[in-house]
TrEMBL record:
Coiled-coil spans in chain: none
Entry's Gene Ontology cellular component terms: plasma membrane
Full protein name: Phosphonate ABC transporter, permease protein PhnE
Cellular localization per UniProt: Cell membrane
Record gene name: phnE
Domain of life: Bacteria
Length: 285
């Protein structure tokens, strides 16, 4: 309750305050008991259906343990032949790294353009905003491995279709991540430049991007990390790199060579993770 002056006279009147307790509660506590119970029941039922439709079974996994044991026994010890396995694996790993690098950096211009056009704070109008969002949604919806299959049929086997696949898919993913980062900026500097008569390009260059450069660079490093892993999978469909060697080793039942290639990939992934973490630490991202 709160006492305030009555505007119709000099007396004081008491008015009830709004109940703000519910607004301060965590979101999960705002649900009633029956709502929470219903949500739990629905989630459980969905998982039951998913387990049944996917034939998920620990019993089946245990029944197949002998096959896994045989597979591991054929993979160990790894093939450490320098000429036959190690050196070709290192060369192919370099190609995998270059595919991930080019797929990330060459998608920066298109990602930045779609991010600006697909952000509510920088898009010129709603029509352009929806078009940019639709393009990003399409590029994200098509998996990079599907793009790779398309480009393999167009330009043939090798690393080039893998690079093209990552450029297209990464443009959609990174464009969306960047557009969301742009939408969270402080609108004050942009409004000040707009009031001063600055053009849209000047506002983006001098007010928008300076605020989000750390976030954009952090997301770029994250996508580079993901793309290196993706380039490994793209090799399985003929896009080159060490993924292609792993696929060939599996098809020829050379599981010891396959294990060697996997260990080389592990070293690459650890190195990329350490590099990304080091750069983020330097820039305090």
């Amino acid at each position: 309750m709160k006492t305030i002056p009555d505007t119709r006279g000099t007396t004081l009147r008491t008015v009830p305050l709004r109940n703000t307790t519910s607004a301060l509660q965590p979101p999960i506590r705002r649900f009633g008991g029956w709502q929470l119970a219903t949500a739990i029941v629905v989630i459980v039922l969905l998982h039951v259906v998913a387990i049944r439709e996917t034939d998920f079974s620990f019993v089946t996994l245990l029944d197949g343990r002998q096959g896994m044991i045989n597979f591991l026994s054929e993979a160990f010890p790894p093939n450490l032949s320098w000429e036959d396995t190690l050196w070709p694996g290192i060369e192919a790993t370099g190609i995998t790294l270059w595919i991930g690098l080019l797929g990330t950096t060459l998608s920066i211009p298109t990602s930045a353009l779609l991010a600006v056009l697909g952000s509510r704070t920088t898009s010129p109008n709603r029509f352009v905003y929806q078009i940019a969002r639709s393009i990003m949604s399409f590029l994200r919806a098509v998996p990079d491995i599907v793009f790779a299959l398309v480009f393999v049929t167009a330009v043939g086997l090798g690393p080039f279709p893998g690079v093209l696949a990552l450029i297209f898919h990464n443009t959609g993913v990174m464009g969306k991540l960047w557009s969301e980062a742009i939408e969270e900026i402080d609108p004050g500097p942009s409004e000040a430049l707009k009031t001063a008569g600055a053009s849209r390009g000047q506002i983006v260059a001098n007010a928008t991007f300076p605020q989000v450069v750390p976030q954009l660079f952090g997301l770029l490093l994250y996508r580079f990390d993901v793309n290196v892993r993706s380039s490994l999978v793209l090799g399985l469909v003929g896009a080159g790199g060490i993924g292609l060697l792993i696929n060939q080793a599996i098809k020829s039942f050379q599981f010891d060579s396959m294990l060697t290639y996997i260990l080389i990939v592990l070293v690459l992934i650890i190195a990329v993770d350490l590099f990304s973490a080091g750069v983020r630490k330097k820039l305090a991202l």
